[in-house]
Structures
1.
Amino acid sequence: MFPRSFDYLAPESMDDALSMLAEHGEDAKVLAGGQSLIPLMKLRFAAPDYIIDINRIPDLGSMHENGSLSVGALVRTHDIERSELIKDRYPAMAAAAPLISDPLVRNLGTVVGSLCHADPQGDWASVMLAMNAEIVCRTGESQRRIPVAEFVQGPFTTSLEPNEIATEVNIPDPGADTYGTYMKLERKVGDFASVGVAIHLSFDGPRVERAGIGLTAVGPANIKATEAEQLLTGAELDGGTIARAADLCAEAADPHSDLRGSADYKRAMVRVFVSRALSAATAGKAA
Amino acid sequence: MENKTISVTVNGGSKASEVEPRRLLVHWIREALGLTGTHVGCDTSSCGACTVLLDGTPVKSCTMFAVQADGREVTTVEGLQQGGKLHPVQEGFKEEHGLQCGFCTPGMMLLGAALLEENPDPSEEDVRWAISGNLCRCTGYQNIVKSVQWAARKAASEQSGVNA
């Protein structure tokens, strides 16, 4: 399969990339890991006139913590999988990374690229919804931060403007006492999620101080389960609360029946995953 | 649409050519360089038959444009042997019957070689995890895992031989 012809631009600075994008706008696509974009181009679902390859721009591959965690646009899923910082402090990200696609795709595919691709079956958006992350978007003149909940608008649709580049995703400090996980039902390695659930909790003693829950592949976009988050905030995780939160998440899900399972089955799996994750969080507290 | 001139170090030698930007790395390797050990399997980023090492890291060459490899190092299965001596992974596939039809084998061997660079003594689970993006429809993976582990033992014995 061959993509349609395009002109290839390989800027060596963000300023150059932004001026190229300002010039070409909707006729251009930004290439980071390419693990979603290139398959789309081969199938000609995407046929941009210009490809702006940002891989030669320095510093976009870095990840650093300074009050919050900044993950640059060229941080690969594999980098997350291997990071001690992520393992120690951001358990939902650490749990999600090895479950995404397969090792070869993880070697190139980026976190920010996955968010920009906005596939409702994408895993990173759920994790970032649970962690209340923000995307940093730049044009030549301005910069803005968009909460992931507002950034992801629908299937393959984001609020990124044609002249903007998403330069990083920014994740708030999780706090000292946290729990996080990502649970994913997939038919086989490399398949998209049948159902995925991301959970991030920050505790203040026995009580949940902040709760974040993101759902994958059970709606036209990744879903932030806000009612369950509100229920959990300030609560202690007893059996009744866990069951009620799991029910609220199942109600928030809006899955379709397809080859990966019926809508009822997927909704039931959301309930099971939420319940398991919250139970595991309380087990951690008891220990 | 403007062609680009690229220069890529392939299996240790510099290769320069003019390419159309839409040309996939796998097609450049197979058609421009004539290195047909890199296979096109699914052509949909699913099977790993087109695996090559990019600066030592396994990637799917059907999901990358040749222009992206400009200035970088690519290793294909043809680059595994050194001076006529088989790589331990290649020997392992021979000793442990790690292939039947052979279509997935170049990718599997490159994954095995990359794994051993990072982890010289991989468990069965480590090997299965490393090759989890590569499909084999013949072997049930059993002998592929054994082949990589054979290679690990071989490399270790050669290493201790050198040290002794």
2.
Amino acid sequence: MRTWTLRAWRVGLLSGLALAAAPAHAFIAYVSNEKSNTVSVIDTDSWTVTKTIKVGQRPRGIDFTRDGKFVMVAVGDDDTIQMIDAKTQTVVDSLPSGPDPELFAQDAAGKVLYVANENDNTVTVIDLEKRARLGDIQVGVEPEGMTISPDGKTLINTSETTNMAHFIDTSSRQIVASVLVDARPRFAEFKHDASELWVSSEIGGTVSIIDPAKHEVTGKINFEIPGLRKEAIQPVGIGMTRDDKTAFIALGPANRVAVVDVATRKVTKYLLVGQRVWHMAFTPDEKFLLTTNGVSNDVSVIDVAAQKVIKTIQVGELPWGITIAP
Amino acid sequence: MIRWLVGLIGLGFAATSALAADPVMIGVGYLGVAGTRSTLSLVEQPAENDGVAGARLAIEDNNTTGKFLHQRFALEERRIKEGEDAVQAATDLAARNGFIIADLPADALLKVADALRERGTLLFNAGAIDERLREADCRANVVHTAPTRAMLADALGQYLVWKQWKRWLLVVGSHDEDKLFADALRRTATRFGAKIVQERSFEDKGGARRTDSGVTLIQRQMPVFTQQAPAYDVLVAADESEVFGAYLPYRTWDPRPVAGSAGLVPRSWDAAQDQWGAIQMQNRFVKLNARRMTALDMQVWTAVRMIGEATSRTNSGDVKKVTDFIKGPDFSVAAFKGTKLTLRDWNLQLRQPILLVDGRMVVSVSPQEGFLHQVSELDTLGYDRPESKCKLK
């Protein structure tokens, strides 16, 4: 198994080089389908599904390794994270994630992976190269959202029933601060300049903006959509453009993505997408933003500059997470 | 030597800082009645710790959160036996606990509420579904996490109407609570445009719920009991006392579905509920209590979580402060039902979606699509503000 894995790494390395040489117009997106137990592969040139990969049970959190060779997908009901070889598009290995992994974050070097384990109130730390478990960090009830500060020093974990964003020192692996936010915090995202941390609260219906130095909530974004009851507005996924000017926030069963002017923290537009929009990913050139729509079983493509939905792609059942090859 | 000294200083420091950060203690009392009721289905026989098991889990959940805020929750359990005085037990609990979760019959609950009024203890009614506790007999020191009969009946009625099963054959048991549930179902039918084509009553003539040749007899009785009914779509049974309801499915004279107290049942919670992150909660519950979670467990869990939610939002263990926050406009709690739960400020009833379950699966969740409301769709379930007779005092 070990030799085989090593070989897979090497093959991956070669293919990565070949890919880098090719013109980079088309990107490849991977979508986890929570109900189908599959991952849909989308070609962003033709906007079609080119392959459907069978994975473990209940795939949710999904992300590329930093080198672009593997797609990691958390298969919660199998208590592991599977590694999909991006070249062969098949599952080649799995990581010792701890029970019921949902979302995870990796350090800038791509060496350490932090996994939220919903079932036992811990964050598991994994050495990505050795694919071995390094330790656990005790956090609040039902850990979910995970992100790392741009300087790599702070790991953020949100706990859904404790309603907090935990600030964890990545070197000591100790919680240094816990900030209370609104009910059921689902996702955390730093501004690229590290000046603000945004945390979405699904049941609270808000996004809290936290000063990461002072560990204080400095503002909240509220959403109001005419003709829609307030309970239907459930913010989950957050995407921010690299210039930190525009944020996109998925509003769940409101079937809309809010466009937010980051400087003024004001919603400027609501884009109608598919039903129960959950997570999102930009293409590396930031021309397009893809969202997963769980109830309508599709992915919406947003033209970022025009702030318009231009396409809908059918995928598997209950699409949940999405990642795009770097 | 130096290392040893540093170690000593370090130890001393750790001890003082621990002392300085002595956690705020929050006492939660649980007051229930000893013994369990008997059900027709052996698998639905409630556990001896039905209800309080939810409190134990919520205390653990609150303590996980509390360790980040220097708050510690402790549970004190008390079960009264037949003939024991609920007021005395409650007063004793209130001496050490600012919050009491009660699973008591309506009359006992009211006595306890009135006895504790001056003391400032906040009571949570987690068990009694009686309408009058939220209407004419409502109390300002009682928060209700249990749904009401009208909420349960409306939740079922909305689904039956959505399904176009609008002609109901209503079968009512002979006990008081059966009749109250039948009242709620009649009100639902009127509100949502269903028609009760006929009512039949099922007399409880006593007898055992367990017999060795029970099925043979029941299989003869039930078809006969339901024959010659006018045309109907669904049989709705009002049998809270568990005398006949569970005998009806598959045994009606006409091939019709059964709902109400058997068949499709409205409940605040069910062990089969796995949506909106509930699976984590179900797993935690099974791990702690070695059995599945019931509606009563959930109603108690929610009450204890409401206390934890309010103590973390106010960063306080002060009973008055926490109580004011719970009753205030900014309070809400997440309870794995897809939407935040809030209190109806006119009678302190928790708004909540109601599950419709068949014993194995969650069939649907009410309110149903299309039942609209100007304030909250959850207020399409049960008595609404304009019709309420409650004056909180």
